[in-house]
């Protein structure tokens, strides 16, 4: 009888102890979960709060660097920006204009028309691609039709360019001032070894020499 009582008591004690352990373990698990939850909440709140502070700092920095447009400093900076924009636009327009002009000159074809200033003219040629032939002359210029002068050499460079030859491979039959235009001259020339005569009109360009402006292809050399 005593043994049965002792065995019953032990069983109840073990069951009670087991139940107590289960309750304690459950409480410990709940406490750990609460700690993790609180810690996660704290970190999450810190992360959410950080970006607005950084944004406020960035905005404050931008506002500090950007002058008030109504202040004298702001007006000066605005005026400077406008001037820079105008200068850049002007440079682009100028460069675009120069490039367009150069392209037009390169792509331009000579214009050939029948007849000319007299019945002896077979055709008249004008070439937008002609350029001044160069010069070594400086200062005020006056047309000088005199052999051995710098002006004589400059004229012959332009005459030769107009008919597509070298001045040393050209015969000049006549050269005179063009009374119809200031700084102009007219020459009748042939390439050596050819009977084709040309009447060439040239025009002085300051600092750049004479430039061909018109060539008349003649039926006959009227200056022989």
Automatic annotation (TrEMBL):
Domain annotation DUF1510: ranges? 125-218
| Key word Lipoprotein present | no
- Which keywords are on file for this protein? Membrane, Transmembrane, Transmembrane helix
Which stretches does the entry tag as region Disordered?
Answer: 50-141
Q: Where is the composition biased (Basic and acidic residues)?
A: 54-76
Q: Where is the composition biased (Acidic residues)?
A: 83-108
What spans are recorded as compositionally biased (Polar residues)? 115-126
**Which Pfam families does the record associate with it?**
DUF1510
The lineage's top-level taxon is Bacteria
Record flagged with keyword Acetylation: no
Write out the transmembrane intervals: 21-44
- The name this protein carries in UniProt is DUF1510 family protein
